[in-house]
Amino acid sequence: MTPGSQELAIRNAEQNRVGNFEFIESLAEESVSAIAPNQILILDPPRVGLHNKVIEKIIEESPKHIIYLSCNPKTQAANYAALQEQYKIRWMRAYNFYPHTPHVESLLVLDKR
Questions:
Q1: Ranges of H-type helices in 43-103
Q2: Residue 71 annotated as catalytic
Q3: Predicted TM-score of the model (pTM)
Q4: Catalytic one among 9, 71, 104, 109?
């Protein structure tokens, strides 16, 4: 996480009266035990995509919803291929935050089947 982003996220949650959340600042593969069935999982992995341990834990625990932001649509597609038996795409969109470059951000919202 960017320094200070956790504090901003907590303040945002307080302003919107959201209390049932937890921020975990670590490598995802080191905190897979936090993935649980009745949650919304927010993922923003590095360009290489999700670690296999994370994919396996998602399949095992099957959270209700996944919000997956990616800076590499190719690895995001490969990760979704591993999850598509359990999840369907509710919504997807690409964002061009870096005009005049080949980079694009891709957002997927997945619902448990």
A1: 52-61, 73-83
A2: yes
A3: 0.85
A4: 71
